[in-house]
Amino acid sequence: MQNQKLQATSKTNKRMKPKAKGATSRMSRSSQPRPKKKTNSRNKRGTYKIPEALPTEEYKEPRLEKIRQVVFRKKPEIKEIVREPTAGGIVFRMTPDNRDIEILLIQDSKDRWTIPKGHIEPGETAKQTAVREIGEESGLKEVDVLTWLGKIHFKYRRLDKLVLMTTQVYLVQSTNNKEHPTKEKWMNGIRWFSFSDALDAIEYADIEKLMLIAKKKIRSGEFN
Question: Does residue 85 contact residue 120 with C-beta atoms inside 8 Å?
Fold first, then answer.
């Protein structure tokens, strides 16, 4: 019996095939989870995918959306047209040798060079307003209004209003060269320019045209 058992075990041992080399390593490798590839949620077009917890639509970068909202923001509808009559003056003086013309310009809060001007108050004429505004904005009191030069028009929006501004412009001479101009608090500057420098500095083409008319009148001495 013992011999039969030994023969049976030896037969079974012979039937068992040896394990191939590396089998255990393959099994261990296959059982381990594969490392996930790093993915970038941003695609080539510069958009981002919404996380799974949110609706699965693609959306554009919030920063670009904010820029678009500002750029394409609709202006409020114009509900009222406002007319604002104003008056001012091209103020000049002659150099001590009486050869060259100097023009007084003021620099507003946005660094634009322009002429003294302001709103016509009730009961005032445009000429009276020009003299008053020149005194208030430049401090010059000894001035002489020589002639009317022309009318200029501005328009701009003020929230839901369209403002139509009309400015009567006069040629005004400073008669006391010892008077020094002084600026108001809201101004960034005030000074005398040579005529050519004033043409370069002035911000508004309509005023520039009137300055050229003023120069001809000053040279000719005709103020009618």
Answer: yes
Domain count, the chain: 1
Average pLDDT, the chain: 80
Cβ atoms < 10 Å from Cβ of 222: 10
The pLDDT confidence band at residue 157, using thresholds 50, 70 and 90, is confident
Distance CA 43, CA 59 (A): 11
User: How many angstroms separate the CA atoms of 149 and 34, rounded?
Assistant: 87
Helices (H) and strands (E) counted in the chain, each on its own, are 6, 9
Stronger pLDDT, 142 or 29, i.e. the higher one: 142
DSSP 111: S
pTM over 0.70: no
As to burial, measured by CB atoms within 10 angstroms (0-12 exposed, 13-18 middle, 19+ buried), residue 133 is buried
| pLDDT score at 72 | 63
**What domain range is 149 assigned to?**
80-220
From start to end of the chain, where are the E strands? 48-49, 58-59, 80-94, 101-107, 113-114, 117-119, 143-158, 161-174, 189-194
Question: At 138, which CATH number?
Answer: 3.90.79.10
pLDDT over threshold 60, residue 150? yes
Q: Partners of 152 in the beta sheet?
A: 167
Q: Give the number of other Cβ atoms within 10 Å of residue 191's Cβ.
A: 16
Give the count of alpha carbons within 13 A of 135, CB side only. Answer: 11
Measured distance CA(124)–CA(198) in Å, rounded: 29
Domain assignment of residue 31, yes or no: no
